[in-house]
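Figure 6 in text form: structure in, sequence out.
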């Protein structure tokens, strides 16, 4: 049994320990917390480094399988990993879309020439898939370099704010990195990816009405084709990227040509594309709205909005919900099943919002890798 004096001593010792811990936390708690964050970031950085290294092996292997053995693939691909495009000046926004389109075209030409040099004997579809492989490994390498940069900078400057910001964004960063790593495998294998949902929806619709072969399509813009059919006494003009190679085409230019050069009287535009879902939403959900349903840097969207506004044509948009990692990964069953729902939505729009004799333009937006006709 403790005496009152012993109880007082124990209480006093407990208070001293408490205050010592409190004071130590004030002076060293922040440093300890930063140390924990740094270890978490370094673990993520190791994983990123592995993905980049493995991604390089996948990329080099893909080129070796079909490429020119006389070319030093390893050094050429390593040099190309840091390829970049400088955005045009936006201080004077007038004409910026034309500058941006020019830069994108030059960039695309660089990718095409690089692939043709390393793999001169491949088909156009194979070359398009290899370009997608390069896009994915460049994006993955960029993520790794950025994370490494801010980690080193944070440690060098002893800035816990930099470390905190990086650690807080780490889950989102790793989600993107994993998506691009999975995309590499899909592009090498030529499998359809989630981003092709819009194209697949249009293909399913057209097959119901007799369009089932590449010969029934006409190339109207670079890597972009059109075809025509009839649905319930309406003329349907469908626009999509040329597959089954991995390309998104130039749907904006194709639609501009239909209006401006071919002078077609189009009564309605329906656009279908994959869209990023919110957390808590189910993959494969279908949304309907208005506007130009197309992602990217904005050049094609600008052209579509320009002609739609000029000719006062209503724009319907249908979106298939999916996460960012699902958009660049092999297409999930939920997304493929959702394209059947989209076909029914398109039919409903045609019946409810157009009349017999109208001409309707349907644009399937997305990457056509693995998606034929």
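Output sequence:
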């Amino acid at each position: 049994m403790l005496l009152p004096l012993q109880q007082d001593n124990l209480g006093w010792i407990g208070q001293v320990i408490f205050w010592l811990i409190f004071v130590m936390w004030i002076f060293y708690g922040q440093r300890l917390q930063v140390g924990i964050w740094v270890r978490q970031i370094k673990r993520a950085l190791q994983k990123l480094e592995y993905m980049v290294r493995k991604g390089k092996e996948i990329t080099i292997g893909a080129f070796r399988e079909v490429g020119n053995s006389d070319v030093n693939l390893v050094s050429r691909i390593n040099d190309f990993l840091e390829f970049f495009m400088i955005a045009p000046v936006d201080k004077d926004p007038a004409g910026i879309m034309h500058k941006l389109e020019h830069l994108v075209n030059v960039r695309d030409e660089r990718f095409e020439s690089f692939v043709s040099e390393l793999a001169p004997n491949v088909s156009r579809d194979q070359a398009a898939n290899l370009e997608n492989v390069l896009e994915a490994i460049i994006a993955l390498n960029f993520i790794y370099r950025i994370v490494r940069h801010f980690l080193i900078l944070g440690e060098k400057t002893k800035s816990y704010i930099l470390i905190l910001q990086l650690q807080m964004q780490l889950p989102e960063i790793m989600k993107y990195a994993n998506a691009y790593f999975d995309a590499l495998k899909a592009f090498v294998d030529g499998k359809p990816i989630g981003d092709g949902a819009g194209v697949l929806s249009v293909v399913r619709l057209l097959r119901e009405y007799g369009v089932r072969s590449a010969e029934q399509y006409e190339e109207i813009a670079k890597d972009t084709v059109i075809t025509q059919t009839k649905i319930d006494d309406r003329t349907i003009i469908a626009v999509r990227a040329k597959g089954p190679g991995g390309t998104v085409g130039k749907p904006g230019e194709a639609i501009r040509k239909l209006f401006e050069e071919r002078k077609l009287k189009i009564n309605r535009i329906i656009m279908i594309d994959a869209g990023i879902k919110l957390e808590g939403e189910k993959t494969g959900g279908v949304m309907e709205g208005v506007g130009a349903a197309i992602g990217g840097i904005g050049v094609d969207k600008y052209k579509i909005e320009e002609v739609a506004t000029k000719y006062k044509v209503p724009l319907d948009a249908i979106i298939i919900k999916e996460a960012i990692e699902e958009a660049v990964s092999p297409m999930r069953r939920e997304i493929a099943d959702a394209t059947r729902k989209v076909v029914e939505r398109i039919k409903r729009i045609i019946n409810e919002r157009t009349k017999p004799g109208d001409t309707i333009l349907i644009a399937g937006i997305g990457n056509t890798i693995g998606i034929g006709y």
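Caption detail: DSSP finds ten helices and seven strands in the chain.
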